[in-house]
Amino acid sequence: MLNSTPKELIERAGGAINPAKTCQPIGAMYAALGIHKCLPHSHGSQGCCAYHRSHLTRHFREPVMASTSSFTEGASVFGGGANVKTAVNNVFTIYNPDVMAIHTTCLSETIGDDLPTYIKATEVPEGKVVIHANTPSYVGSHITGFSNMTKAMVSYLAEASEENKKEQANIIPGFVNPGDMREIKRLAKHMGVKSIMFPDTSGVLDSPITGQFMMYPKGGARVEDIRDSGNSRITLALGSYASADAAYHLERKCKVRAITLKTPIGIKATDDFLMTLRSNFVKEIPYDLEEERGQLVDIMTDTHYHFYDKKVAVFGDPDIVAATAEFLLSLGMRPVHVLTGTPGGVTGASAGGFEREVKEMLDQSGVQANIKAGGDLFLLHQWIKNEPVDLLIGNTYGKYIARAEDLPFVRLGFPILDRSMHPYLPIVGYKGAMRLLELIGNALLDRVDRDASDEDFELVM
Amino acid sequence: MAIDQKMLEEIIIGQYPAKVKRNRRKHILIRDTSLAAQEIEANTRTIPGIITNRGCAFAGCKGVVLGPLRDMVHIVHGPVGCAFYSWLTRRNKAKSDDPGKNFLAYCVSTDMQEGDIVFGGEKKLNRMIDEVVEIFHPNAITISATCPVGLIGDDIQSVARMARERHGISITAYNCEGYKGVSQSAGHHIANNGLMEHVIGLGDMEEPPGKFTINILGEYNIGGDSWEVGRVLEELGYDVQAVMTGDGSFEELKNAHVSQLNLVQCHRSINYIADMLEKKYGTPWLKVNFIGIRATCETLRNMALYFGDESLIQRTEEVIARELARIEPLLEPYRKICEGKTAFCFVGGSRGHHYQGLYEELGIKTLLAGYEFAHRDDYEGRQVLPNIKPDADSKNIPELHVVPDDRRYRLKLPAEKMEELKSKIPLSYYKGMIADMKDGSVIVDDLNHKETEELIRILKPDIFSSGIKDKYIPQKMGVPVKQLHNYDYSGPYAGFNGAVNFARDVSMNFVTPAWNYIVPPWKNKPLLEGTVQDS
Predict the structure, then answer these.
(1) What residues in chain A have per-residue pLDDT under 50?
(2) Strand pairing class (A129-133; A99-104)
């Protein structure tokens, strides 16, 4: 497996080998699916749309609906105005969504299609909305695309229509699973804080089987709620790469204070999330959340010897990886290779401090590590060959490295294509931390069992 | 329930805007065997916003044809997405005696950035080629273009030419930008041209290595299909020189010119090479089908007839008899489950036809079949080829014209023998899907989401076979689904063992207990129960 990956590192500048990221539009498509009765639309040639739908569908095992402008060579040379106009007309007539959320690809971006002009010139039926985001695939990653579409929701929809701000918080959850979005909403509800979450794919990409196909499932952020987000007191942007841009845009547009937090993975980031709600809305943390937290710490003390000093390689999307690294440190583990494919300091984005942020955390814990933004799995594998680890954490593509190096492997992040259930169960909050702890612990202990000689095989561990 | 023209007009096409209506009407047929020929429109541009299942030329070129070649590194020149999504997602299996010469688990992208779009990406592409040579030492390299490459004017052909000189290995470039043509089909054609022009014939073999040397064309070894086919062929004494391209290699491909017969499994994706091999080297091709037991037997018999060797013909019958005796009892329990059921069969450009026979052998009737991107000849048969006019969207796919090779062209069979065989077996001919379909069945080209939903409601198939994008839609309606692109991660489905695997997988889908739980018990029971007492 991966026999051609040498141990010796060489300087590379030709691109990515085994990337740890994908391109913007899939993130935008995912975000758009988090609006109720919205059909995402890909303004490019249809291959992109087919690929993005397929990959999301493989991760969630759910229908993923989206339409495309289906560029031909003619449109690619002379502009895709006619294509998108035809598409909007066909989509509303045949598929009748409330919202069409258009994103772009490297094709329409390279030719410079002017979507605001096209949209203005297109007849949109009464009561229907068309929004758009520019999502050039040659900038950033799928996380950038998620961020751009979320920002478009603010640009097109959010309004400060009331004189006084309402006692409610906007929550931008970042590129996480529907199970995580449900958990974040549950935490806010337990705190007694009214929240508007957008995008929100719960009830869309984890919908039940009923015997009926619902093109637009029950879930998704309602347009009227996204409009009302302009009247909220604060916006919590969970994960700076995925969520901060939209939150700061909302602050500029509607004077809603933006607060950027880590994705609430692990004990510390969850504490921060609850403490922020507590101080902004003067709400006590209810006992049942305190109980959950205490259970988590109880488990951490019970099992500390499973985790202590274990070396971990972790890769994936920057917000998830940074928060996971913090959780690993709180377990006494050592994340010695930390990598994201998403580049830092993306043009026009306020986010981009992955390497600095992770380094600060690791320095405080005295952990020496390889840290890289904009890296790839070929490099990660080489790092592991040079400094072996006890555990690998990342998306499905990590299984090839895990097999090549015979490593215990925990699947985390996007995409996970070879296991089911993960979109339903959270990794955020205290409950999510418990689940993550179980996944990690099981992976490590299964390995101990596998490798033990008969006389060292333990009943109780 | 059957469907007639009136229902088609009223229920499905009738709901479209006028322009869409005019278009889609020509892509849907109801089979009527009383007519001499039925014409369908195919291979035309996709309607924007219709929710098609189609992909692009890049997917057809790199994803389908080039990607499976295991000892070559396939560089994708573009932003990261195209390479990422075509990384290990088609299940074209490959194994190599030399583990250092199988690169399928690697995804190589120039990962173009904004600066590369503005200032051009040739420099970065050159750098990637050099790095690939240094790291992987592959037998050959391909470069596939993506959408922006054509627009910004990167000349990947000249980059490949210069890199070839620099490194002394085969480095070929494919202008398969996603917007070329109207579907994956354009990419097949582009890949065929490149392989024919730059790879096939590059080897120095002059004679076939065995008595019955063949190539298998348009077989991508999904889930191990070509290995199961190869098992039987090997036993019969065939030498498989090259498979295009499942578990294929540059080393085998470059000597593909020596074979005496080319088998064509997927007509759509590889008929260009089949045709060109015949023109250039005089090698005839035979349309084969290894999906289904009857089709497999017929194919083996046709092959034996082509070579006309008595002992081969006899051995073929022996192997067929033995294989049938072995698998028939295995199939029996599955047939009991499948008997009387109905299916939809909508797949890319060939399986929509091939799987109908296998379904039929299990007692399952195909109500609807179609292709995403096949051409009229795949529907109606190759005799319509002279009548197909290229339209504006596909005119720009280059036609490669080959001439007989001075040194290597030879007639594999005398002309009169060829003519005689042509009346018996499909030599250099494919009859298309429609010919095999039953009266009243529906044929749809470029089936879209709307039509999928409506046709399921009307025809109520027991199983829906298609791809990953529409898998979960029928499932939500309670209709079992069998993916016929990736086999739901199972396989092989080809050949004798494949038929058994397929029967098992389809059967377990039908009998999965979960289908019985879709409706919660409280939906069918009143909240309060009681009896009325006589007063």
Answers:
(1) none
(2) parallel
